[in-house]
Design brief:
single chain; alpha/beta; Leucine-rich repeat, LRR (right-handed beta-alpha superhelix); 6-stranded mixed sheet; leucine-rich repeat; LRR_dom_sf; repeat; Leu-rich_rpt_4
């Protein structure tokens, strides 16, 4: 899924973006290989906790508008450079950051931790480990100060080039893999909303003879939406209509 306004409101169970306080989109919930991966975060002025662990995020610039952000979980993403911390330096309430298992951590754990703490001295916990006063003092010596954002290569459309492969360039998914993911995701959403899971034999209404991968994915998404819409009341359907 792509991180759109509708997805944010659904995941946060909020009526408006300025009412979103916590957002959890972890564990491959999103296919984030697009230039505007998490741009919607710029429209979340009151967000306090964001969980994006185990995705494909590489650009943290949209987070620099989240002035109320206190906890940020980014474990196992595609953040290539510690210069991305530049966008977090002006977040006055950021106290918890989980950044481990990203390419930017490199092969020197000490240098990595010292650099993060030098640039984000207000952190109380980094990678699930409490920050000490001694570490903050040592970071002034061993850490590297980040004074500029990371350089990004440009592509023809003017957007930053993604550091991960697009869905179309990734390993081709089989029909069963596409179906399993869509069914799993649908049931995960239904579980959060207090609904019963959808049986496999009632999930797919499209022909398995389709050969175009994009068409199969589109059909899966449509099936998931239609199944969820059956659970909505009149007010819910009106909200969907307005968003469309």
């Amino acid at each position: 899924m792509r991180l759109t306004r509708a997805v944010v409101l659904m995941r946060a169970k909020a009526a408006a973006l300025d009412g979103v306080r916590r957002l959890n989109c972890c564990d491959n919930f999103l296919f984030l290989s697009l230039p505007d991966q998490i741009s919607i975060c710029q429209d979340l002025p009151n967000i306090e906790v964001i969980t994006f662990s185990v995705n494909g995020i590489s650009d943290l610039e949209p987070l620099n508008q989240c002035q109320n952000l206190s906890e940020l979980y980014l474990r196992k993403n595609n953040i290539a450079s510690l210069n991305e911390l530049f966008y977090l330096k002006k977040l006055p309430r950021l106290k918890v950051l989980w950044l481990s298992e990203n390419p930017c951590c490199g092969s020197d754990p000490h240098r990595y931790r010292m650099t993060v703490l030098r640039n984000l001295p207000s952190l109380q916990k980094l990678d699930n480990q409490a920050v000490t006063e001694e570490e903050l003092s040592q970071a002034l010596v061993d850490g590297e100060e980040i004074t500029a954002p990371p350089a990004r290569r440009k592509v023809e459309n003017g957007h930053p080039e993604s550091t991960t492969s697009s869905a179309a360039e990734s390993t081709t998914e089989t029909e069963s893999e596409v179906l399993n993911f869509s069914l799993e995701e649908t049931n995960r959403i239904r579980e959060e909303l207090g609904m019963k899971p959808v049986p496999r034999d009632k999930f797919s209404s499209f022909s398995l003879r389709e050969t175009d991968c994009n068409q199969k994915k589109r059909n899966n998404v449509l099936n998931a939406i239609l199944l969820l819409m059956k659970e909505l009341d009149t007010e819910g359907l009106e909200i969907i209509q307005q968003m469309v």
